[in-house]
Structure formats: C-alpha cells, structure tokens
Amino acid sequence: MNLTSKLPQVGTTIFTQMSSLAAQYGAINLSQGFPDFSADQALLERASQAILHGNNQYAPMTGLPVLRQAIQDLIARHYNRQVNADTEITVTSGASEAIFDGITALVNAGDDVILFDPAYDLYEPAVSLAGGVCKRVVLKAPDFRPDWSEFASLITDKTRLVIINTPHNPTGTCWQDDDLEQLWQAIKDRDVYVLSDEVYEFIHYQTQNVSVHRHHQLAERSMVVSSFGKSFHLTGWKVGYVVAPEAINRELRKLHQYITFSTVTPLQQAIGEHLLSTPTASAELSPFYQAKRDVLREALASSRFRLLPCQGTYFQLLDYSEISDLDDVAFCQYLVKEVGVAAIPVSVFYQNPPTEQRLIRLCFAKDETTLLSAAQKLARL
Ligand SMILES: Cc1ncc(COP(=O)(O)O)c(C=O)c1O
C-alpha cells in the first residue's frame, strides 16, 4: 500500500497534545477552549425532553424551522439585520462544518485565499483540500491590528476569498468598524467573497461588537459563521450556523447536504426553543466572561507575566519574556510538566511565527477556583 496523504503537514493538533499532557501530569488545563462549568439547566432539560418526545429522526437539511426562526430573531435583535430564515440561514454541525462547507463551496483549484495570521487551525487545511493557496497578513503583538496596505498588496485577480475572525482566537483582540470598511474598500470592485468567523460574537468587552452583519455591503458578499457551542457553554453539542445571501447559501448547502446532511435534531429543537424563550441569554454572556477575565488578570497582575489586552473571546495572552528564553512550545511543555498548568503556544497559529515573540494563550472559560489555582502556580515563576 502506498497511501499518499492529502494533508502531509497535518499531525495531531497542539490542543489534543496539551490536553493529554495535562491529564498525564495532573495539570490544570487552561489550554483547550472549553468551559469546565455546566450550561443552563433549563436548556439541558429541553434537550432531554426533545429526545424523550420523539425528535430523533433527520432534521430538514437546512435546519429545524424553530431554530432558523430563532436565529433570524437573534440577528435582528443584536444587529438590526433582517435575514430570510428559509434561504439565508443554514444550521451546521458546529461552526467547523460551516467553515469547511463555505471554503469548499467557494474556493477552486488555484484560487488565493487571504488569511490573517495567527489564524484558527481549520482554515488552511480546508483551503488546501479545495486546491486553494493561502496568502497571509501577519498581525503583530501587542495590538494585532491588520495592516490594510499590506492586505491590499496581496489582492490579485486570483483572490477568491478572505477569511476574517473577530473577536479573535487566539489573541483576544476585536476589530474596529473602520477595519470592515477598509476590507470593503479593498474588495468591492473585485469578485472576492468573505468568510467571517464570528463564533465569539457574544463574548466581547467593548460597547458594541464589530460584525459583518452590521456592514450591509460586506454582508452581501459574506458568509457569517457562529456557534452555539460558544454561546451556550456547550462545545460538545457542535451546533453552529451560517448566514449568507441566498446565492452563496445555495452553493454552501450543496456541500452541507453531502457532508452531514443535517445536524442533531433534538439539540436543534432544544436550542431553538431556548433562544425563543430566553432572548436575553446572549446579552448576558459578555458580563459573565468579563468577570472571569478580570479574576484571572487580577490574580496575575503582580506576576512576571505581562498581560496583553483582552477585548473579546475567553482567551488571555501572556508574554513570558521576563521569565524564560525558551520558545513557546518548549515553555508550554515546561509549564504543563513542572508548573502544573497547561497553556497553548501562540506560534502554532502562525505559518511563520515571529521568532522574537514569547506568548502563550490561557483559556479562562473555567470556574473561578480553577482560575485562581492556576494563577497561583503561574505567579510563583
Ligand atoms: C475561531 C474559531 N472558529 C471556529 C471554531 C469551531 O467552532 P465549533 O466547535 O462550533 O465547530 C472555534 C472553536 O474553538 C474557534 O475558536
């Protein structure tokens, strides 16, 4: 047998590696991005009721009507954008599936796709499986602002898609309104689409989240992706969605119907009912996570780590250059084995990581006691 890998560069992700090292060494796991607390009991009840009451067969390919209706309302409430629940919303098995469907639907062999590095690890493999080539704008610490003239210099007739992500994993930064306008100005006269990964849309510490939903012209070219895993502390449910104009959605659904066909029915039913009955839940998420962020930041304030600004997501970046000269992968291995805290090296999110950068990412979607114990260990360094 001579099996040729389609993704020769891809191995087991650092998230899996760090989580298994954390288990092996009994370390506090602030590496992988998932909450260690329970979701709303009422939502869990709805899911078990949905199963017991027979919502157990295939859902419609595009998503259960109750959930698509609830998403339509959510977008109208938060962004004052009216979308058609039948033609412009597709429910997917996590944001990951939506991203994969969207990239596969739009990118052809030889197309260029522009990414902003550091970038979520799913984008590049999906682009390369579609035969596309990633071009990267590097975001630099400490503020990770996009350089729009560099971006403009990468656009050519081969550019097909731009992938953006705000609030941003791993840096915890958020774009400003002006960024979306700059993006629009750079692509408006070209046949270029946008995939906007907004899975942390309700976890931001600014007065208003910057979203493609609010930029009408950009929205007409975009697939906006989100995830109830993030918004309801249920990463294991893998229920996400994409909002896109009908013509783009039609192409994306062609992928969705053969990749998963439909998403777990009782979970869609539960989330749809829950969103309709507790419309304030999404607005409560930012203050909830802001309190956790502040607990962690305060507990590390007098340590030798330098805390970078955190404007959104549940990730906090720490600069450890005063503590060690190790590269960030080696430093994270030292942390998990010797200090008892698992973190993620930020270099893994770059194709060409800046060599001088000494940054790690901590996930603060954890109980306060977990955060304080981890901070106590880190503050000893
Ligand atoms: C930026 C970003 N996009 C997409 C995803 C995937 O979301 P889901 O678990 O809903 O597939 C994640 C999950 O961590 C993420 O951080």
TrEMBL record:
Signal peptide: none
CDD domains: AAT_like
GO-annotated molecular function: kynurenine-oxoglutarate transaminase activity; pyridoxal phosphate binding
Residues that span the membrane, as ranges: none
Stored SUPFAM superfamilies: PLP-dependent transferases
Keyword vocabulary terms for this entry: Aminotransferase, Pyridoxal phosphate, Transferase
PANTHER family cross-referenced by the UniProt entry: FI04487P
Name listed for the protein in its UniProt record: Methionine aminotransferase
